[in-house]
Automatic annotation (TrEMBL):
Domain ABM, chain residue ranges per copy: 2-91
Protein name in UniProt: Heme-degrading monooxygenase HmoA
Keywords: Monooxygenase, Oxidoreductase
Lineage: superkingdom: Bacteria
Molecular function terms, GO-annotated: monooxygenase activity
Alphabetical list of SUPFAM superfamilies matching this protein: Dimeric alpha+beta barrel
InterPro entries with a match to the protein in the record: ABM_dom, Dimeric_a/b-barrel
Amino acid sequence: MIKVIIERRIMPGLEDEYEQAALEAMRVSLGIRGFVGGETLVQLGHTDRRLMITKWRDLRAWKEWHASEARATAMQRILPLLTEDETIRIYEAGY
């Protein structure tokens, strides 16, 4: 099991539009094999900053989703709403 942490910064005033686009992307990912679950957090005092924590069966499942046409389509709605490139970090359980 891995967790993928995605940080995004949204253009001021476009938070509601971003929420709709991100929700749709999450809905699409629910049908992807290997997707276990996820949550989105808003940084306190910074409504333009989001942290997404998604859980995947394994790295292969995440890579398949990341390279998929479905994610590319979802990102077409999200990317124009961001002020900078998203940051993606992948974690596994520590020992």
